[in-house]
Amino acid sequence: MKENKIEKTTKDEELGMDEENKISKTFDSTTEPGEKKLNIRNTEELPSIGINADNPNTKRKKMVSLVLAITPLIILAGMIYFLSSPYGQNLINTGVPLPEVSIEKVEFHENQVVAFIRNTGPEQVTISQADINDRIQSAAIEPSQVLSRLSEAKVIIPFFWNSAEPYEVGITTSDGTRFSKIIDAAAPAPVPNINQFAVFAMLGVFVGVIPVLIGLVWYPFLRKITRNQYNFFLSLTAGLLVFLGIDAFLESNEIAANNLAATFNGQLLIPVIIITTFLGLFYLSEYFSKRAESKISNEYDEESRHLGSQNHSLKSPEKSLSKTRLSSLSLTNPLSNDTIDQTQGEHEKKKKEEQLTRLMDKREIIRPLTLSLMVAIGIGLHNFGEGLAIGAAVLLGEIALSTFLIIGFTIHNTTEGLAIVAPLAKTGRLMIRRLILMGLIAGVPTIVGTWIGGFVYSPLASIIFLSVGAGAIFQVVYALVVFMTKSLRQTSKINNAESKKLGDKVVRSATGVLTSQETSPSTAIIAGFIVGLLIMYITGLLV
Question: Mind listing the UniProt keywords for this protein, alphabetically (predicted)?
Fold first, then answer.
C-alpha cells in the first residue's frame, strides 16, 4: 500500500508541476555540491516577509525621517533671515560697531612706502588719510577707499625714507580711528628679478639643501654601530624632531599673534592644522606601508608555492597528473632525467631561493624606508615654513643677510640629515640614490619657501605651512617611537637568548642576577633624546 501511494504522488507531481520541476532542475544544475539549494516552490511566500521597496509604510517612514532631518536647517535659515532683516537689526543693534583695520605688510620701494591693509572689522570702513611717524602724507589707495569686510587694499605713500631707520605707518578711517604698524628698520623690498631669485635660491641651498646632504654622510658610520648605539641615535633623532616641531609651533604662534588679524583666529587655527596633518599623514603612511607589505607578501607566497610544489600539486590534480606523465616519460629516457634534474632543476631552485631572499629583504626594509621617507617629508615641510619665515624676514627688514646667519642655519640644519639616515642604519643596504632623493625632499622646499616668503609674503600662508610642518614632524616622532619599541622588543629577545648561554658579555653579580656589561637600552634612549634637544638648542643660538 505504501509503495502504491508513493507512485501515485510522484505521478501527480510529474503531471501537475512540470514547469516547477524544470526550474528546480536548472537551478540544481547550477549549484555547487554541498551548497544549500533554494526551494523554488516556496518563493510565493517571500512577499509575506515584508521586504518590499514599494510598500507605502516604508515610503512614509522615509519621508518623515527626511522632514525631521531638514526641519532644523529650515528653522536656522529662518532665524538668520530674521536677524539680517531691518526688523531684526532694529531689535538687536543697540550700539555702533567699532572698525578694525589690519596693516598686514609694509614694503619700502624707491621713494615710496606701500602698506597692505585689510578690513577685519564687522562693518564696511572708509580710509580717509595715511601718515608716517604721525605726519599726514598724501596717499593713493588701490583699488578703493571703501573696504567691505575682509577686503584688502594697497596704500601707496610717496616718501623719502632712509635705510635701517625705524618708521611708524598709520591709517585713519572716516570716523577718526587710527591704526598703525611699527617697522624697526626699513629695508628695500626685494624686486622679483633673476638676480633676486638667484640670491634667495642660494640662501635656500646653503640653509636647507647642503646641511641635509652633509648629515647624510653619517650613514656609513651608523651602519657599523652596536645595537645600543643605534637606539641612542634613534632617540637623538626623536629629540631633534621634537625640538623642530615645538619651534615650528612657537614660530607660527608668534606670527599669528603679531602679524595676523584676530578675525582669522590664527592661534586656534594652528592646533587644528597640526592635528589634521598628524592624522592625515598617519593614515597615508600606514596605508602605503601595508599596501607595499601585502604586495611583497603575495609575491613571496607565489614564489614559495613554486619552490615547494607539493601543496600546489594537491590543489591542482591536472598538474599532478602531468607530473606523473613526465616522470613516466623520464623513466623511459634516464639520460634526459639526469640532465634535467642536475642542471635545470638545481639552477631554477637556486634562482627561486634567491628571489625569496630578495623578497624577504624587501619586506624587512619597508618599515625603515617608509620611516626615513616620512622623516624627510616632515623636515621638508618644516624647511618650507622656515624658508617662508626667512624670506619674509628679509622682505620686512627684520634680519640682514650675513655670513654668520648662514653659518648658523647651516650648523643648525646639519643634524636633520642624521635624522633621515638613522632609521636605515641597520638595514644593511647603502641605497645612495634613495638617500640623495630623500635629502632633496627635505632640503629643496627651503628654496621654494624663501622665494614665496620674499616676494609674496602672507602671514596666513606662513601659519598654515609652519603648522603643517609641525604636524608632520609630530607624526614622524610617533612613527619613530613605534619603530623603536619594536626594535627594543627584538633586542630584549636577543639579550634573553644570550643570557641563557652565559656569553662573554654577561656576568653574574653578587646577588646571583645576570647583568650585561653594555649600557641598558633605556639609558641610551633617555641620553639620546636629551642630547638631541640640547644640540638643536645650542645650534639655534647661532641663528
Answer: Membrane, Transmembrane, Transmembrane helix
Q: Which residue has the cell 512540470?
A: 18
Helix (H) or strand (E) holding 84: helix 56-84
The single residue listed with the C-alpha cell 631707520 is 165
Superfamily of domain 101-183: Immunoglobulins (2.60.40.10)
Write down the pLDDT at residue 491: 64
Rg (CA), the chain: 37
| E strand intervals along 176-238 | 178-183
Residues 6+ apart with CB under 8 A from 177: 98, 99, 101
Measured in residues, the chain has a length of 543
| Lookup: cell for 145 | 577707499
Phi-psi region of 107 (alpha: psi -120 to 50; beta: other; left: phi over 0): beta
User: What's the number of CA atoms in the CB half-sphere (13 Å) around residue 438?
Assistant: 30
> Residue 129, SS3?
strand
CA–CA separation, 454 and 398 (whole Å): 12
User: Has residue 74 got a pLDDT over 80?
Assistant: yes
Cell 627684520 belongs to 398
Q: Judge whether 237 and 480 are in contact, CB under 8 Å.
A: yes
Relative orientation angle of helices 2-16 and 18-30, to the nearest 10 degrees:
90
Ramachandran angles phi, psi of 430, nearest 5°: -85, -50
Where in the chain are the domains?
Answer: 101-183, 194-289+366-497+514-540
Cell numbers for 489: 622588543
Give residue 121's pLDDT band: very low, low, confident or very high (50, 70, 90).
confident
Average pLDDT score over residue span 493-507:
57
Q: Which three cell numbers stand for residue 392?
A: 619674509
Strand residues in 135-285 grouped as ranges (E): 135-137, 140-142, 146-147, 152-158, 167-173, 178-183
- Cβ-contact 104, 116 below 8 angstroms: yes
Q: Which three cell numbers stand for residue 385?
A: 615654513
d(CA 390, CA 446): 9
Q: What DSSP string describes 373-391?
A: HHHHHHHHHHHHHHHHHHH
Taking only the tens place, the pLDDT of each residue in 296-352 is: 666 656 656 665 554 444 444 444 434 444 444 444 444 444 554 555 556 665 665
Rounded-to-integer distance, Cα 525 and Cα 233, Å: 8
Residues whose CB is less than 8 angstroms from the CB of residue 195 and which lie 6 or more positions away in sequence, other chains included = none
Contacts of 114 (CB under 8 A, 6+ apart): 106, 107, 108, 154, 155, 156, 157, 189
Sign of CA dihedral 157, 161, 163, 168: negative
Question: Is the pTM value of this prediction over 0.90?
Answer: no
Tens digits of per-residue pLDDT, 355-371? 555 555 555 677 778 88
CA atoms within 13 A on the CB side of 205: 6
Three-state DSSP state, 254: helix
